[in-house]
Prior knowledge:
Helix content: 55-70%
Largest sheet: 4 strands, antiparallel
Distance between the termini: 27 Å
Amino acid sequence: METTTSKTTASRSSALLLDTLEAELEEYETQLLELNTYSNELTHKYNEKVEFQECLEKGRKFLAAEADGASSKLDTVNPLSSAYGAPAISEDGMQPLLADASRGHSGASSVVHRTLVPSCSGLASGGFKHVIEGEMKFSSTVGILKADEKSRFERMLFRSTRGNCFARFAEVERPIADAATGRPEFKIVFIVFFKSEVISAIINKICDAFGARQYPVPDHLTLGNASQLGLIVRETTSELADAREVLLKNRELRLALCSRLARRYSEWKAVVLREKAIYHVLNLFRADVSGMLRGEGWIVASAEVDARTLISQTHAAMDLAGASMLSQVPLPWPVPPTSFDVNEFTYAFQEFVDTYGVPRYKEINPALFTAVTFPFLFGMMYGDIGHGACILLGGIYLLITHPAYRRCVSSAGENEMLGGVYASRYMLITMGLCAIYVGFVYNDCFSLALALFDSGYLWEGSKGSVAGSVDGGAEANLSAPYGSTGSIYPFGVDPAWHISSNELLFFNSMKMKTAVIFGVVQMTGGIFLKGLNALYFGDRAVFWLEFMPMIIFDFCLFVYMAVLIFTKWAINWDRRQLMGSCGIDGLTFDQRPCSDGDSLKHKCALNFGGETGGCAPPNLINQLINIALNPGVVDEPMYSGQGSAQSALLAIAFLSVPVLLLGKPVYIYFQHASQPASASQPISTQIEMDQDSTSSEDPKSKEVHSFSEVLIHQCIETIEFVLGMVSNTASYLRLWALSLAHTELAQVFWEKIMRTAINANSIFFVFVAYSTFAVVTAAVLLAMDLLECFLHALRLHWVEFQNKFYKADGTRFTPFTLGQLSDK
């Protein structure tokens, strides 16, 4: 469809809405940035005050400890002084600060004290120096440093000042926030004493290099300033409390502002997404006459009337008559996208198909058939009344709780995994129903047979059915003549088979043949769908040169195989074996003389040929193999002329293969050759692999293939079909294998856990065994085996069924919907 709209009309309301929103957001942004800036400044100053307080506390302890120890250390001499003498003056004229008192201090004041002060050299040697206090006065600096930098910092001080310093360190007990980064770190407080301005500059450079921050702690070597230091500590503590109060108030303001923004975030996001999506669509429009915009797109045919009505209502509401119009684009069109109307039941099955690939436009949708065959094939593998009932109850629970889940989604958002489980609620219900149905056919309920009707077999000692007890090895006989109503169990498998010694042999034969029959039926249905697609699109080449050879090949070999299975089931082999026996009167069934030494072929009255003459049940596996390996020879025929019929079918099947291989390429070649020279290309043809009836959006972009490429492609298709029919038929045997595995696992769990506990005749043992049985059944059969059967059924549809007619290269129709933007 083609849409034309006015530029000014489309942008007027959107621009006003976005401008208003932008102004509002800028105002909020300005407020938040101001609060953040103020918070960063306050936090930085607060952290500096915390460090300053630590420096004050530790500095006061440093000096108090030195003052207390001064009197006890008088007249103490460095033990290394006599050994090494006074330190020499260095080349740059800097002499160690803590030199011996005997080196020229005669001009000191009247009161002179000698006190012991450790030097930086004492960090390494443990020695001491005499210091004359009087005219000499030390300078000091106090700062804070990362704890892990202590050793390097101390070593750098000693080397850079040549020992002309005295440093003390104290660890901060708790981690404090770094004033620069704000990260909590363990720190140490240091105090360094020095004499020279040169050393002061060196220490400042070292502190800068190590990221150590220095703070102006008052110099109170004279203890009279102790009260002043305490006053400073109290003031700093008060300032810290005030700064903390301001920081908390700033945080509350920012939190309140962010809360207001968060409450309106969803609303603003929806507005921005909607306007952005609208602008994105408008960018796809092209400029047209009279300041109009023109755009082309797809619309579902059934929604065209609603779209026109909506446009008219919008014009009337905004008083903009003729601002836009909707019209149909003339043919030819590009390849349309595919759209399907789904409901809550079909949604999950359509998603299965779309996961493999989207159908082409107007191609047969496999989801319609998947909704029927998928649950049934699952039931064939999972067939058990009890386990199927558990799945059914789970699906019903999801169905009942779905409204509550939708209310929860509308308030808290959707969980993708839980949403997928609820979306498959109807699928689980149908899977459970099919598993229960097939469980009744198999007569299995938690691996136990149900005697719903009277059995058609009787043992000696039984009471008209499977009740009572019989000895092992006893034989069962029909309770009524073969083929009569009394000999046939009303529905499903007779429970007598579940307690017979050849139970496994019987169920293997039944389930294997059933799997093959359903596989052939589904594959044949897929081939018929290919023919229907070709008829719908009017593609005669595909119908006559692909579909017809395929269906002939399928009927001649695989449908015939299913017919043989039904034929063997329908024959009364008791009567046929009687026809091949020699009576007590020495006569055959047709009154010919015979003896016990005669061959079955000689005694059989049917005379169908082979080694049995048709009077013995055949081995179908060998018979099917001999169709191809030994044509015309049937050792155990079931009807007259079976060998000739099979040879004719095999020949027809072989003749269909060359038609499938060469028919379409030759047809395309002659079709190209019959075109006029001006309208044809040089010995080449345009093909879209199995999509001859549709055209791409840009005809010039089609690939041009030579005749050899067409032939190679058809050769691949032929090989894939012929070999695929064999492998796909074998693949359907998974229906038998997984059903057998499920039954045997359930039987093992019952016999090894529950039956053992019941035979022990202990209530406690039965309780424990039942708990174990329930857990194992839920974990293995209701979880693992459920998923296994689910995946195998899905594989049968994707590979064995859909590849017969379905190319999965379509494009999903994704309409522009404002309602979906808020969900993203």
